[in-house]
Design brief:
Elements: E1 2-5, H1 8-13, E2 15-16, H2 20-28, H3 40-48, H4 57-63, H5 85-93, H6 97-105, H7 115-123, H8 125-143, H9 147-175, E3 181-184, E4 188-191, E5 198-201, E6 207-212, E7 220-222, E8 229-234, H10 271-276, H11 278-289, E9 292-293, H12 294-301, H13 305-317, E10 321-326, E11 329-334, H14 336-344
Parallel strand pairs: 1-5, 2-6, 6-8
Antiparallel strand pairs: 1-4, 3-4, 7-8, 9-11, 10-11
Length: about 350
């Protein structure tokens, strides 16, 4: 049993965090607490595994290198509560080589170290880049289509637990997270994690509570003197889990704009067009397909370059795309705000 000791400041700074990277790892881990026949992660993986891109291999090897989990540096330590995958992967890319070596050392020495982790240690920044690129590709192809539904389930769970905290206090809410996390009146959260034993002072930093759609049967804990402590825990059974998809309904897109249809879903109005107008909705989706120049954008849309430039300028003013100059050209990319808007408003599908 691990005892997490709370002070007054820790209670005040305990907060919920939604992490896309956590879900990408939990959904694709084939061992440990995420594995189980009939579980949400197993059903989701069965549905998406045929769409896994080759670029994701390095990421999957690291995630599945050991049944005890991943090195601590794979878990993002950021201030933002509602995180973007881009921010989490930027944090991964900034991990110093010494931290990578220390993290891998926790899995043994010599031949004991799993091959994927030993290779990551040897490759340094290049290895982290390959893992990061693989995570992006995997998210776009497999998790992005389900992420709006999953995020809504997470936010509903957080709202319900916030109501519990309002009625019963932070301690009562912590006690309700999972049977393996028990709150004691002396300000201690006792977490049962196999045979692990110890006691840890949170030191005024509080605790990050990370609800996870794919984790159903246990909890996960990461605590240390030089980073934010966090507790991974299941959510209550969602009222409307993401629907099972068909193979023909999945499409792969760039920058987290992939969308899928279901056999039972009826066509919906285009929410993006309602917000931006049909023309600018087309422009945003065209830029999301891949970075492009104004001339390339005009060709994709079948309009004149001045018209494409005017639409791009409007989207840039709204913070949905960013533009950078490369020689005599400018190139357009979708911002994180644009990614979120696209994820929440997939293109409508024609009737089956």
């Amino acid at each position: 049993m691990i005892a997490l000791r709370f002070g007054v400041a820790d209670l005040a700074r305990t907060r919920f965090v939604i992490s896309p990277l956590d879900h990408l790892m939990a959904g694709t881990a084939r061992s440990g607490v995420h594995q189980g026949s009939g579980s949400r992660s197993e059903r989701w993986w069965r549905d998406v595994r045929r769409h896994v891109p080759r670029r994701a291999v390095r990421f999957l090897e690291v995630v599945n290198a050991s049944p005890v989990g991943v090195p601590d540096f794979m878990v993002a330590d950021l201030d933002a509560v509602r995180r973007q995958l881009a921010d989490e992967l930027d944090a991964l890319l900034s991990v110093p080589q010494q931290t990578v070596e220390e993290g891998v050392a926790g899995f043994g020495s010599g031949q004991e170290v799993p091959a994927a982790l030993a290779r990551l240690r040897e490759d340094g920044s290049r290895g982290l880049r390959e893992v990061s690129d693989g995570a992006w590709a995997l998210f776009r192809s497999c998790l992005a289509p389900d992420w709006p539904d999953i995020r809504r389930a997470l936010e509903a769970d957080i709202a319900a637990r916030a109501r519990t905290a309002a009625r019963s206090g932070i301690g009562g809410m912590l006690d309700s997270l999972h049977p393996k996390a028990v709150w004691r009146d002396e300000g201690v959260l006792e977490c049962t994690l196999g045979e692990l034993e110890g006691s840890f002072e949170l030191g005024g930093r509080g605790l990050e509570l990370r609800p996870n759609y794919f984790v159903e049967r246990s909890i996960g804990l990461l605590a240390g003197p030089n980073r934010q402590s966090l507790l991974l825990h299941p959510i209550a059974a969602p009222a409307a889990p993401p629907a099972t998809r068909t193979a023909a309904s999945r499409t792969t897109a760039n920058h987290a704009t992939a969308s899928r249809t279901t056999a039972t879903r009826t066509p919906a109005a285009d929410g993006l067009a309602a917000v931006l107008g049909p023309a600018r909705a087309r422009v945003l989706r065209a830029v999301a397909g891949s970075d492009c120049s104004t001339t390339e954008l005009a060709q994709r849309l079948g309009v004149t370059p001045p018209s494409a430039s005017a639409h791009a300028a409007a989207l840039r003013t709204a913070g949905l795309i960013a533009t950078r100059r490369e020689g005599k050209q400018v190139r357009h990319t979708v911002t994180d705000v644009g990614h979120d808007l696209l994820l929440d408003n997939p293109p409508p599908q024609p009737p089956a």
